[in-house]
Amino acid sequence: MAKPVQEIAIMSQMAATSTMGGLSTGNHRRQNERKRQFFTFMHQGHKICRVTFLKLHACGKSRFEEIMKNYRMNGLIPRVHGNAGKTPNHALTYNDILRVVAFIRNYAEVHGISLPGRIPGMKSYENKKFLPCSTSKRQVYLEYAESCEGLHVKACAETTFNMLWRPYLPYIEKMKPMSDLCATCKEISGLIIRSANMQSDERITEAMQKALDHRSLVKKEREYYKDVLKEAQLLLKGLYTDAGNNYNPPLTMPLAMLNIVAHYSFDYAQQVHYPSSPLQAGPIYFLTPRKCGIFGVCCEAIPQQVNFLIDESFDTGKGANPVISMVHFYLKNHGLNSVSIHFNADNCTGQNKNNTVIQYLLWRVMTGLNASISISFLPVGHTKFSPDWCFELLKQKFRKAEVDSLDDFIQVVEQSSAVNKTQPVGSSNGELIVETLDWCSYFATLFKKIKGITGFQHFVVNATSPGVVAARQAVDGPVTQFNLLKEDVQIMEDELPNILPPKGMSTERKWYLYEKIRPFCRYQCKDVTCPLPDTPRLTGSSRQSTPGVDDPPDLAMEIEVPHSPRQSLEPPATQRKCGERTDDKNVWEENTEIEVIASFTANQRTPSVTCDL
């Protein structure tokens, strides 16, 4: 019970049992007129002594006397502390508060950074100022205390300093560490700070104008991206047979019959490693498990994102060929079959913004697959868009799940959200599903290149102008046309480039997974994620070095499996799928002899121990 409520309860009992006036009730003394108020202590209808009453109410003697005094003087009202409403002697004055606020504001003007672009995870960022990441509030307070000492004025306490910062200056915050920032924003912010320190009005004005121009450009491109998404959603509304099925195809009518624009965004995500567990074992932290790349194509109007899962054994790099191959596969098997397409991608020149991608768009309209295609690239450093949202949902689920194989990862992606769908590039049993085609070599014989392609942000191709690309540097900028079609070239509709087979994993990498990563997999997935290699391990000068897989030179345990006669006479054992059981319960590894060589250096000797099983 709170103290004010407890005191009211005690005073209520005083009011109910108090006696005032009349004659005293003593037996051994004569009755006299009562001069003081008398209280009868009661508990559940029984009289008790004062000591028991105070113990039952957890009240001390001095406190009880103060309660009685308050009751006699003021009646049945709560007690009020004597200093209530009075300003303490050590309280801050109005000038002290102004001094603290002015110091923080001036400190932010000198050291603060105003980013012109959007800040992830923060709303109403336009008017905020950010102190450098290396600056702490304690560091600011120490400089404030030093300045007060120089002015011979009293400095407030650090707790009071922080309490005044929050309500009076909420727009001044410490910047959190971030990556993938816009280089232009960072350069302009540094220019503004240097100009402010030099107190040059012309340079400050010039720097602020650059920041405003860059911010206006970024905002204009972002608004255009949002408008395209809204238009695509309105065009696709009501075209589906089952609205309760998350707007998934099939459609009530083929979209090729309708003159609409379907919008897609595509991007790579950071690759993941498996086996992965939320309760990670210590040794695997220093190892490199099996890798799996992620490439997503998002159709925001449905909404749905198809995530291409690229296992390490099916990896063909991250150039233009795999990007175009996966986009081509998506449009053929998962696309909406629309007349026109609008793509959005980031500004990575090696993957998306290159001549091969633009030439692929020309090839699609010239072969009759689409009537018109446009592609827009978001400004560098401001490329957060729909695929990143789906990737984050995927990664959140992945960090909490047990993943020991590609099949486990497929289930994680499907369960992460209703918008995430999977499309493995290859299956766990080695079957190639999504082929990578040599688009670069194929288009080199058909089209010319655009000079200065990185300076343009928007490209449009149309079937009415074969081989012509309309490019713009900004959404409202002038149009520049390029004719990329070479002379005397004929494009065949059914012709496709040659297939680029996956490089696969090297022998050294396979042995690394088998020896180092296999112990961390579940038993059912050991032969799927880290199977026994079908080729002997290379040793000596013929050993292939794979980055990140070599053992440390000191105190290393090296396991070598020699090429036994049984391996040369019998075919290699078939790989079992994750969760599949074998008939033989006493299955041992393919090799019956394992030579374990433990090498170490001590006293200029290198002993070795050999164990034959």
For the largest sheet, list the strands in their spatial order.
Answer: 12-9-8-7-10-11-14-15-16
- Count of alpha/pi helices: 16
First-to-last CA distance = 74 Å
In total, how many domains does the architecture comprise? 4
Shape call: elongated
Class from helix and strand fractions: alpha+beta
Average pLDDT taken over every residue: 80
Share of β-strand residues: 5-15%
Q: Percentage of helical residues?
A: 25-40%
Let me know the largest β-sheet.
9 strands, mixed
Count the strands? 19
From the alpha carbons, calculate the radius of gyration and give it in angstroms. Answer: 38 Å
Explain what the structure shows:
InterPro entries: DUF7869. Residues 321-467 form the DUF7869 domain. The protein is of the alpha+beta class. It is 34% helix and 15% strand. The protein is built from 16 helices and 19 strands. The chain has helices spanning 3-17, 50-56, 61-74, 94-111, 137-151, 158-168, 183-198, 201-236, 320-333, 355-366, 386-399, 406-416, 439-444, 507-517, 526-529, 565-569; strands spanning 18-19, 38-39, 42-43, 46-47, 129-131, 172-174, 261-274, 290-299, 304-311, 340-345, 372-377, 420-424, 436-437, 458-462, 468-472, 479-483, 499-500, 557-560, 595-598. The chain has a nine-stranded mixed β-sheet, sandwiched between helices. A hairpin with a 6-residue loop joins strand 15 and strand 16. Helix 4 packs across helix 6 (158-168) and helix 11 packs across helix 12 (406-416). The protein is elongated. The chain starts with a helix and ends in a 15-residue tail after the last strand.
